Each structure stands twice: as C-alpha cells, then as structure tokens.
Amino acid sequence: MKRKNTMLVQRDFVAFEIDSVPEKRPYLLSRDFVFLKPLNEFAGPFKGRLFRLVKSTTVLVEFGDDFHSQHSPAKRYDVSFSFNRVCLKRAHQAISVASDPSLHNVLFPDQTVSYHPNTSHFIPDKAVKFQDHVRKILNHKGPIPFLVNGQLVQNLSPTGLVIQLALVNIYRTNPRCRILVCAPTNDTSDVLLRSLKKEIPDSSLFRANAAYRDYDLVPDDIIPASLYEEDGERFACPPLAELKCFNIITSTFMSSFRLYAAGLDSEHFTHIFLADASLATEPEAIVPLAHFVGRNTIVVVAGCSGKSPYWVRSDIARKHGLKVSYFDRLLAREPYLSNDSMFIARLA
C-alpha cells in the first residue's frame, strides 16, 4: 500500500495517512485488521483493529497496550491490512444451512407449488399510486418469494415507499406479525426504520446493529430503537423474551445473524423483507433466509435489475456467478421471467 510517512500515536488510537487504498480493495471496513511491523526489529507485528477511515485518506486504528508500551516517535513501521473473517464465516455457515430441502422453494422457486392468496387487506387512499403493488405484497402467501423490481431504496424511492406502505399495513392488520427487514448497508436500514417510525410506535421497532458499529455515526433518531452497552462500548440485542416482542426488526443482512445467535429461530418471523438485494452477493442475502425462513414465512425481495453487488474481489468467484445477486438470479427464472403479476411487481 502506498502511504505517507505521517503517523500520529494517541491514547485511544493510531492515525496515519495513506495515498490510496490497495488495488481491488475499494474500501476498508470497521473492525478489519491492521498490522504494524517495526522495521529492522524482531518485535511485533502488532495487531490492531480499524476504527474508522476518514475521507479515504486517514486510517484510525485501535492497538493494545503492548504496542503503546514499546512505541517511540523515532520508530518506523511496515503497514499491512487483513479483512475480518467474521462476515465470511457467517456466509459460509448460511450456505451450509441453506442446503436443507425446506429452503428449496425460496432459493429455487417452483411455480407448481400450491399458492393461496389472501384478499382481505385494505390499502389506504394515500397509497393510491402504489396500491396495486402494495396489495400484491399483502396478498402474497408464498412459499415462493415475491419480487419488487424498481429503484434502490436510498432516500425512500418508490421502491422504499412500497416497502414502507406494505410494512405499515401488515403491522396494522396483523397484531401478531413479526417482520425482519434487512438491507446490505446501515444507511438503507436506517432509512427504512426512520420511515417506519413515522407510523409505528418505537416500542414495536428494534434496530439490530453490528456489535462494533461506530456509535458516533449512528443517526440520533436511530439510537432510541437500538441497544447500546456503554460498559462494553458495543451494540447488543436485548434478552430473548424482550426481543420476541418487537413487531419489526431491521438490520443489515450480516447483522441479522446476531438475532439467530440471540435465540430467534425459523418459526419466529411471519415476514422477511430484503431491500436493495441486488447490491448484495447471494451468500449475504442467504444469511437471514437460511436462519429465519419457516414453513409459513412470507419472503419479499426488492432490488434494481442491472445493479450488481459492489465488491466481489475474487476472480474465481466472479467467474462462477457470485457477481450475480440472489435477486437477479430469481429475475432470470420463472415465474418472474414471464412477469407473472402474482409473483413480481415492476415499478416504473
């Protein structure tokens, strides 16, 4: 990695500037590993965790006392980076679980499966523009996923609005609903939760954050729906009994694993919504599906055709299809390929 010689050691973190991130490494992730090897010494290397990347040029890293006790301003280091394998392990574990035959119709839909739509839902007048799309979602019974093909959610695009209207109506018409809403990024998860807070009381909503998500970067209006343990300086999940009481839980695809680790199972959620699924690799999208799709779970997958997963670094993975998202793979097969309105909504 090209880097400048500027390095600032403070009590809480080490900051140093870089000229550019490595080729084929478009970003560095919080909690990735950073190694400092003293030049011309046998000590180290010292292992730290990336705390934050500031404006793509300044890296803030947390190191332990072993580094701070031996560091001096005159020392020079060789810097290297290694990604945190936690998310990769979760994806591998989810793929293993997904091999169960019970998930076949979610991953490889079969239109011959019996389908019994529900026609009892009412859509409010304010949703007239999208009422047909929302009604299709509300009427859907599965087990085949329902797809919504439109713009990315971002600042509550039409796709985001359709998802919001569907979630609010499910909440209002089914007091026993338990809904998991996942997205590839924290920003999208926060946007969806913020839209729901306008219609649904905070007591019914929970935001499952990654344990070490930077507290300072979490929007102020999202904090009340989260659980932050100040002693451990990390986000957490409440006790299982309390977790089961929330009607809607939002998270990223990967952070949904925390709900599984907390004790929720495949019989808990009545609905699973995957937003912006076209931006996630298929193993990422499978994480919530593998752990939480039950016999009666309704799955809604939203995305934007032509928008591929951001970062697939492996040439072998790209060659063998990992660049194709779960969302786009479904679009290319029946019943979605023929635009069957019982299974897909296409937004202009």
From TrEMBL:
The keyword Hydrolase applies. It is found in: Cytoplasm. InterPro entries: MOV-10-like_beta-barrel (IPR049080), P-loop_NTPase (IPR027417). The keyword NAD does not apply. Signal peptide: none annotated. GO terms for molecular function: ATP binding; helicase activity; hydrolase activity. It holds the Pfam family MOV-10_beta-barrel. This is Putative RNA helicase SDE3. It comes from Dendrobium catenatum.
